[in-house]
Specification:
Strand content: 15-25%
Helix content: 40-55%
CATH superfamily: Vaccinia Virus protein VP39
Largest sheet: 7 strands, mixed
Oligomer: single chain
Order of helices and strands: HEEHHHEHEHEHEHEHEEH
CATH class: Alpha Beta
Number of domains: 1
């Protein structure tokens, strides 16, 4: 949706769950010399300032990154690198996180349709990624399969519209059919309506998943955060255990 801006949620518990797992997965996929292609369907602006008014308005960062000590591992390394460049209140969105962890042999493709977010993304990641101002699902499918063929796609829509759950599942099936080497990571919010269950049923593909619970607004908003891995690489089952360990202070 063109009304959504992630700055209000940057650094919150859901971001921590997603970003720690993403960093661990990227580290796993780049252990061998062979390059990978990393893509995002909904990149946002890529880099955030936790001192910005949008972040203060929701208080999600205070319930998330502000409540845990600097994490170790790939996420902590990327966070430290980004803050060394942009200051102590900087927080890496998934594009900046990936840019910090990927190597010269790897390729980074970012899709963003929101005009303001796209402009900010170009400013923040210019020269570090191929940045596309287009619908993320259409864009990723159009350039798949890429070179290198081994790769990871992050599917991270806003879910402001109910149909986005089924859209994410439909996209994933089409992508895997066109690019069988791709690992797909889908993030989703855990809500009282449990709409993500329809998405999981519509995938019709083997997957592994992880969900964490938290309480941001006395149970009036998200109840937690979910991640699904399709075509998970060997060893990926250990990632979610590490994600829980590092993110434990943010859980209910």
């Amino acid at each position: 949706m063109l009304s959504y801006q992630h700055a209000y949620h940057a650094g919150g518990p859901a971001d921590l769950h997603k970003h720690i797992a993403l960093a661990e997965l990227l580290a796993l996929l780049t252990r061998k010399p062979r390059g990978i292609s990393y893509m995002e369907t909904h990149a946002g602006r890529g880099l955030y300032d936790l001192a910005a008014p949008e972040t203060a308005k929701t208080g999600e960062a205070e319930a998330g990154i502000a409540r845990i000590p600097p994490p170790d591992g790939p996420f902590g390394e990327a966070l430290a690198n980004v803050r060394a460049l942009h200051g102590e209140t900087a927080y890496p969105g998934s594009p900046a996180l990936a840019a910090s962890l990927l190597r010269e042999v790897d390729r980074l493709h970012l899709m963003e349709l929101h005009p303001a977010e796209f402009a900010a993304l170009k400013t923040n990641l210019e020269g570090e990624a191929a940045i596309h101002h287009r619908d993320g699902y259409e864009g990723v499918l159009a350039i798949s399969p890429p070179k290198p063929r081994k790769g990871l796609v992050l599917v991270d829509p806003s879910y402001e519209v109910k149909s986005e759950y089924i859209q994410a599942a439909d996209f994933t099936r089409k992508l895997v059919a066109k690019w069988p080497e791709a690992t797909v990571m889908i993030w989703y919010p855990v809500l009282k309506a449990a709409r993500h269950t329809d998405m999981l049923a519509a995938l019709k593909l083997p997957y592994i998943k992880d969900e964490v619970a938290f309480d941001l607004n006395d149970g009036k908003g998200m109840l937690g955060s979910g991640l699904v891995l399709v075509n998970a690489p060997y060893g990926a089952e250990n990632i979610f255990g590490r994600t829980r360990k590092l993110g434990a202070p943010v859980l209910r």
